[in-house]
TrEMBL record:
Repeat (TPR) residue spans along the chain: 73-106, 107-140, 141-174, 175-208, 209-242, 243-276, 277-310
Source organism per UniProt: Floridaenema fluviatile BLCC-F154
Protein name: Tetratricopeptide repeat protein
Secretion signal, residue range per the UniProt entry: none
SMART domains from the UniProt entry: TPR
Pfam families with a match to the protein in the record: TPR_11, TPR_16, TPR_2
Keywords, sorted A to Z: Repeat, TPR repeat
Family matches, as InterPro entries: TPR-like_helical_dom_sf, TPR_2, TPR_rpt, Ycf3/AcsC/BcsC/TPR_MFPF
Amino acid sequence: MRNAIVNSKFTNFVYTKLSFFDRVNMLKQIFYSHLLVVVTAALFTPLAVAESGVSSPRTKQLVQGVYTQDLEAAGYFQQGVNNYNQGNFAAAFSAFEKAIERDPSIAMAYHYMGNVLLGRGRNVEAIAEYSRAIQLDPSLAESHYNLGIALYRQDRLDDAIVAYQRSIAINPRNPNAYYNMGVALYEQKQLNGAIDAYRQAIALSPKKVNAWLNLAIALEQQGNFDAAIEAYEKATDLDPKLVTAQNSLGNLLVKQDRFGEAIVAYQEAIRRQPKDPIAHYNLGMLLYREGNLEDALSPLREAREIYEDQGNNAKAAELTQLINQIKQRLEAQKK
């Protein structure tokens, strides 16, 4: 999963005799420059590699010689499956190695070995094992799928997309395959393809929060703001603690000059996650943009306190500077 926060430094505000129109534009530019935008780059869900192996019925068939006529190889393979399911991956890997020493044609042994290697972060070796499994049995949707994961982790996006497509061709009911393909397409800036893939994932798994969130991000970048807002709202409905989506919703509403709705979105983010400094900050900056200087101070102070508690002294110092500037403006207005 890859989330980034884009921070901008505070600047000293210089006020001269400007027309009302110029002052409004200047404040708007200042606001947009300081709005703490949460750039929720496509979230790559940690995939359940341990659950992507063989189903129990197929595992039972293996000991009957369906995949190998070598009983000793079948025994080692079953031993590997048992250890794998118990989380004893080192013993499982060793048993699978013994199985393919006896019979190198057991495709699922290579698949399981790929799973173990992928779980250890040994992506290049995992790619080799999945490739062997696919060469022996091209119908293994799980191997194509997990191969896509390993290729993605190696930044081989084109190859990963192909692997996911092949997995989907064999098993079109796996929402994670569509979702992960959407992630790779998004990173290649293929927004239309990513949006289609996320929609397919949602059609199969309507409660897949990250798919809704990533769909919203892609739609926003595409300029389809109304659909993006709906997707953000769906993500927040599914996961009330997902303040990233709530903040992004507020930011998008600001872009559309729907300031009242944006304030509500930020306030809702704060209600759901009171210790999220970004929501407090964005709310304060929006109130400041609207000229509500007194009201802006409270959320900005709260954001500063949270940053101090988090040990982010640099951000707290920046907020102190901004708060002092707002207080100076308030004092100047009283004169």
